[in-house]
Amino acid sequence: MTEASAVAGAIPDVCQCIDEVVPKLVESSPGGLAPLLRSCGALAVLASGEAAFSTCTGALRNQVGTLRPDLLALLRGNLRRLWRYPLAEDSTWASQAQVRLRTLLGTLFGRGLIEVSKNNCLALAQSAGVRASLDFIVVQLLVYRLAHTKPTPKRRKRKRRAEPDELEEEIDALTAPTSEDLMLDEALEVLQSVDPGSMYHCVGMLLLTLSAWAVDLRGGTRLSWSEQLLPEEVAAELDEDVRLKVLSRGFLVVARFLSEYGLPADLDREEVDTSTLPDFTAEGGDEDVGAVAALALCHGARAVCIAEAAVQGLEESKEQALCLQRTAELRGLLLRSLAVNHPATFFRSLCLTLGVKGAAPKAQALLSDKEFAGSLAITVLSGSADALQVRRDLRNDDEDEGMEAPGEACAALCESAVQHISKRFLAGDAEDSVVTKAWTLLDSICRFAKTHASTPLVQLVLPQAGARLKAASGRLTGSGAKVAIACCQCVDTVVNSLGRNIIEKLNDLVPPLLDLAMMRRASNADTTALLDQHILGALGSLARRVGSFLSPFLGRFLEVTCSGPAARVAALQDLARELVAGVPHRLLLMSVQEGTVKPFDGTEESLTALDEKLLHMQRLASFHIWILSKASPEFVAGTCDAVMASLLRLLAISSDAVSAFLQAGMELDATPSRALRRGNDPALVDEAVEELSWEQFGSQPSMWQLHHLAAAAFAQFALRLEEEELKTRFVKVLEWARGKQPKLLEQQRVRKAKDFDSIDPVADATAACRVMALTSTMGCIAEAAPGIAGSLLLPLGTKDLSTALVACRRFALQTASQKARKRRKTSEKAATSKEVLQENTWWWHDVACSCLDFLAAACKPSEHAGLEAKPFADAAEELREPVANLLDIFEFLSQDSSVAPSLRAALEAAAVALCNVANEGDVKLLVQAILEKSRSEDAEVRLNAVRCAHRIWTDLGVQVVVCLSEVTMYASELLEDEDSRVEMAVRAMIKTMEDCTGESLQDTLKS
Fold first, then answer.
1. Would the CA dihedral through 813, 817, 822, 824 be positive or negative?
2. Residue 654: inside a domain, yes or no?
3. Residue 93: cis peptide before it, omega within 30 degrees of 0
4. Which chain regions cross the lipid bilayer (predicted)?
């Protein structure tokens, strides 16, 4: 046996002897501890065990009262020897040394052996080693101050008016810092009184210590560093409420430190290894402050997330809620600070906290607790996503030109995080709440990294997204919907960020998205609406970024866009616009043409199903408009026949639709309100094409809107054709509208009253819809290219318009006669004869208004001469009687009828337009034909004839002065009309005529 080993072997016996005499030494002399402290300090260096340390701590526990300054100085002088020795080469030495240190410090503070002050705390830390001890000293300082907090004195009640001095005293009392503020200030001063490297190291150590305390409060498995940083015998001395208070104040101290002192600017410059814990027994060296701080803050960020998850699992109380709030606030502050200013350190801390292989120590046994692991995952995932969101709000990384992009600098870390999240949370059996947060964080990482983390995003995330969305079809409520929303949002971001890099995964991604988009969800809950919004947003991003590669899916894209619910019309239109902007028009037009088929195939369907089909075709017609409005003449020339065939099918849809509606049980008289739904929207030309909105034209099924949309599409097609080519194409449309008749509605024009009961309502409705589709098309072309009306439309279509107007009048009068006879048979009052047409306006009213609207659009005010004026003169001559004779219908419409105003407005506009382009002779004849109706026995006919003539004078003025004598003649007859309304209308017309001519007509009227 060597001399050294003999000495070491005798030390335990020596220490035992000292233990026996300690009580007598302490009792006999106040300075009796001095020799013991010297002896223990000397023996600790020589001992192979902890005998000297145990003897010293045992003696201190027996000490009563505060140590004398000389004894405290002696203890401080031997402090390092007591906890750092005996040295050992095995891996457990650091753990054992920290246990010794913290047990000794706990004894000093817990037994009240030192006077607790900032200076004493710092002196003790300097003696023991700042980096090894300062965090625990701060904790002990908080424990002591909480146990010795002085109660706040109650305010004295004032019984008289306060003097100025008393007011100042009260103000000072109100603004004076509280005992808690003073405690936090003191702890913060202790922390900030050391060198920067030690300060940041101790902040990390403090967070590790507090996290160990939080986990111990929760109970169960301890953290791997708990035994070193928080010996059980130290923590067990305090009850739960006090420990919660210490936790709360400790996190508040760190939060204040971060807010007031900030972080080093060079955190990201140093590579740090986070796969091992910081050296708990480290001594200060010459290492870079940034490297020390980066390592400490990475582990500190993980520690505060663990603490938050642990506090969440505690029994609810006021102190628990406060502690949880402060923990969450600190976590948010720390992660935000790192994400905004130090992204590399942020992602290192994220990889460490998530447990990424190679970036984190061995997994904690505590994580085998599924409840705790789930809470921790949600805390980390949501907190990190929020921090990256704050970065996006505050910084624009694209503006830092000439500098390495943050996403590029952090590419390896981002890829590691993405791989880990995808494999651990998306591919596993994690709870929906965790998966939702995982998708949200992946979305944020993708926004940050952009193309610099493309490999795991494409190879791992997108396939998982496809699988999740495919499985989500049966779980679109509650948490399942939230997962799908977050997944779609992440897909949207990945597609926008990576663009064509995702092409290889389109087959995995696009079909499930389209399947979800096509699912009918009856619920209108906010979650459902949000899910639809994100699904459509992801599809829109696909169209925008990889539209050229979506050819296999375009048919389904159009089906989704055109068949979606009206409640989502704005989002559906956004998707439609993205398709038009992102998909090559040649590809998109082919799919649109394939979709423009006969949707009404004669099978029996409900009215609701028919509505959906009609609305689908309205939206599909919009695609024709958008594509053709951007097309070049060369593009149209190359696809002319296919486009023409598609447009003819589009024009024919309304005639098929009305037949299907009637066969499905719709009442014939309900057709205008149930299927046609006539509106007052302007023609879709010029700016209206760009402003075309589905809120207006794609939110409710309407054959009238479909006419306008199909007409606008044909007008865009026509504008890109040579005139001869256009003539050929228009003739085909005209022949289609006529059907098997020589002219429009020729059979209806010559129909006898005796044949009224044998009318085929479906055939009539089909023919009427063809006329309305044609006149809408002609009107839209005339609006878009006014010169075409005189050179093409009127020469080819005037006689058809004439037969159609005559047919409308005949059908209206025959309907009125038939209804009147039925009313007489049922002994209804005669007064109701004025209302026989009010509820029976199909189809005469709609066709008449459609034809008159075209005339108003085609005969625009302009100068015509020579051959160019002949088509207008021919139209005025041909249509004079048919237009004027429509006034006869007003006999069967009451003044309160909802139909009369629209018919009167259309008739007046057409009459004005015809007078505007007619020669003087035709103007006289037209006005005379109109005023001839003022001699009718029916007051409504007379009144509307006068109003029509008045409108001509109002709009054209002296331009129709050639018919002054004729108008005056009829006016003189009507001045004494038995109906006061007619008399008033005549006098108003005379006043307008006098204003136009500047002459008084009184003498002429009296003669």
1. positive
2. no
3. no
4. none
